[in-house]
Design brief:
Blueprint lengths: L19 H26 L4 H4 L3 H19 L1 H4 L5 H23 L1 H9 L20 H7 L2 H26 L18 H8 L6 H21 L9 H12 L2 H10 L4 H4 L5 H44 L11 H6 L23 H10 L2 H9 L4 H19 L10 H4 L5 H21 L13 H18 L29 E3 L1 H5 L8 E3 L13 H13 L1 H24 L1
Helix pairs in contact: 1-3, 1-14, 3-5, 3-14, 5-8, 5-10, 10-11, 11-14, 12-14, 17-18, 18-20, 18-23, 20-21
InterPro entries: RGS_sf, RGS_subdomain_2
Protein name: RGS domain-containing protein
Organism: Emericellopsis cladophorae
Length: 572
């Protein structure tokens, strides 16, 4: 690509150049491709880890594949470049490079979006921003109701479509790539080698590298500026900084290699697009192998946590043989039993470890604020702590304080006459639990879903999903008179239907009213009781214990060490 090693008569070579340098480029391409495939497979096998789920690996993989295809073409350009038609080079550079950069931007921009959206979990209001659906929506309202990934993909696909149109338009109007048609004045003259050299430069090529230059010099610095002060534990900020710095030189050096005559001796061995290839190679390192390294670090820290838990359990149980089990399943099963003790304290004895469930539960009860802030601003998993806190508040409000049996059934509401107070408590409890499900579990309402197993998710969905659909207007009973019209929201005094969700007048009138203003008057499932969240709660607690909690403890220890060092320096 852009390689013009002509003969003395101005004719192009008739064979590929497989010399020592060409062999090196071939070996480098094969080796790096195999290593990259290994990294992609490693991430794919661990894709269910929370730290990888939040990244949107499909976009990252798509970007890396397109950019790597261009990278291979560039690395082998030294070998077959003089034999390739300029039109083929133009299409490779006009499609693979900008399309790959577009997908990479869609993937990397999630960093800023996730960081901004996680800030909601450090305030008092930890509910979803989603509103019940209304009768009609304008195009702007429909656009705003889309999730971030859908909107970003729509914008990126629009940009890719525009780039495709622009590439096709310039290819058709320029006679550099074909002599039979095009705008007069764009043709090139001279020997075959001179024609190829002239066709490899010009304004037709500039849009292909514009997006790479635009991202490295403008978009990435803006993202980093807006995310200043954020130091995440997932390596996302480091990735953005690395990719930004790696891309700064690419377009300027490509232009210098093409238009500065003094670069001709270098271009014989290092063709101009290889400056872009260096940027792509570094981008692949930060996009694929940095997350791989973070996964390995996380697995090591997680194993350390499991071993600490096992040692602590062995000491408490008086395990005389000293055997320690660090198996994942056995550690999880040991915490499956519900733990309801309020005000749990942690002994300062050396026999207790801070990396235990007791320590985590003590923090959640006594001082969850710092852990909540760390999980939201640094670990990007604030939904887990918020989910646990909401469940604790719900249980404290409806069961522990009021003294109602936690295993009460709604059968009394349907078959046996009961007091109005108990009926109100049951319905209020279900409505509050429904909001928790919508905000953290539902695939329709939760901005950040907690990472539950399929069994726990199906259990909760079986109890709450139908009610959630009614609340959001996805499942509604049509009016027989107007069967094709979406039913509107009804107020409390105008509806007694068990299949109709209602909204308060204030919530209907206000565009900013949260979903908490919605009342559900449908049928309460028989399976609903005070234990409905127990399995999900313990699952998320275990997830926090083995993911966020060790990072939090490590960060606090580091902070305490720094403060102690500063205090000793001040006193000295």
């Amino acid at each position: 690509m852009h390689a013009t090693r002509g003969t003395k008569d101005g004719e192009l070579p008739t064979s590929v150049s497989v010399n020592g340098l060409g062999t090196f480029y071939i070996c480098l391409s094969v080796f790096w491709t195999l290593v990259l495939i290994g990294g992609i497979l490693f991430l794919h096998l661990n894709r269910r880890m929370p730290m990888l789920r939040i990244r949107g690996l499909s976009l990252s993989f798509g970007a890396v594949v397109l950019l790597h295809m261009y990278w291979i073409g560039v690395q082998l350009g030294y070998i077959y470049g003089p034999l390739m038609a300029p039109g083929v080079e133009f299409w490779i550079m006009g499609i693979w490079l900008p399309f790959g950069i577009a997908l990479f931007h869609a993937s990397n921009s999630r960093f800023l979006y996730v960081a901004e959206m996680q800030k909601r979990f450090i305030g008092d209001d930890m509910t979803s921003n989603r509103r019940p659906s209304s009768k009609k929506k304008s195009l702007i309202q429909k656009w705003r109701s889309l999730d971030y990934t859908t909107k970003m993909l729509a914008l990126v696909c629009s940009g890719m479509g525009f780039q495709l149109f622009l590439t096709l338009f310039m290819f058709l109007v320029s006679r550099k790539f074909h002599d039979s048609f095009g705008i007069p004045g764009t043709e090139v003259h001279g020997t075959p080698a001179e024609k190829k050299a002239a066709a490899s430069i010009g304004w037709e090529w500039w849009p292909s590298v514009f997006w790479q230059c635009f991202w490295a010099w403008i978009v990435a610095p803006i993202i980093l500026w807006r995310a200043r002060g954020l130091h995440d534990t997932l390596g996302w900020r480091v990735q953005t900084i690395g990719c930004c710095l790696a891309g700064l030189h690419a377009t300027p050096m490509w232009l210098i290699g093409l238009y500065v005559p003094g670069m001709a001796p270098i271009n014989k061995y290092w063709i101009p697009p290889q400056w872009i290839a260096v940027s792509i190679m570094l981008l692949e390192i930060f996009t694929i192998f940095l997350p791989c390294w973070e996964v390995i670090k996380h697995q090591s820290l997680r194993q350390e946590t499991l071993e600490s838990i096992a040692r602590w359990e062995a000491r408490n149980k008086g395990n005389s043989d000293g055997s320690i089990s660090t198996d994942h399943s056995s550690s999880y099963v040991s915490w499956k039993k519900p733990r309801r003790k309020q005000g749990t304290s942690i002994s300062s004895s050396s026999n207790n470890s801070v990396l235990t469930m007791d320590a985590l539960e003590h923090t959640l009860i006594q001082n969850p604020g710092p852990l909540q802030m760390f999980s939201a601003l640094r670990d990007f998993s604030g939904e887990n702590i918020a989910f646990l806190r909401r469940i604790a508040e719900w249980r404290l409000k409806f069961y522990d304080v009021k003294g109602i049996d936690r295993k009460m059934s709604v059968m009394s509401e349907k078959n046996v006459p009961s007091s109005p107070t108990q009926q109100v408590d049951i319905r209020a409890s279900f409505e509050e639990a429904l909001r928790i499900y919508i905000d953290f579990v539902s695939s329709r309402g939760a901005e950040f879903q907690v990472n539950l197993s399929s069994t726990d998710f199906k259990k909760l969905a079986g109890i709450f999903e139908n009610a959630a659909r009614i609340v959001y207007g996805d499942v509604q009973s049509p009016d027989p008179a107007t069967p094709f019209e979406t039913p509107g929201w009804r107020t409390d005094d105008r509806s007694n239907s068990s299949q109709t969700a209602i909204n308060t007048p204030e919530a209907v009138a206000s565009e900013t009213s949260p979903v908490a203003g919605v009342r559900y008057w449908g049928e309460i499932p028989e399976e609903f009781n005070g234990d409905v969240f127990d399995d999900a709660e313990m699952s998320i607690k275990y997830l926090v214990l083995t993911n966020t909690w060790p990072k939090y403890v490590k960060a606090r220890r580091s902070m305490d060490s720094v403060e102690s060092l500063e205090a000793s320096s001040t006193s000295a």
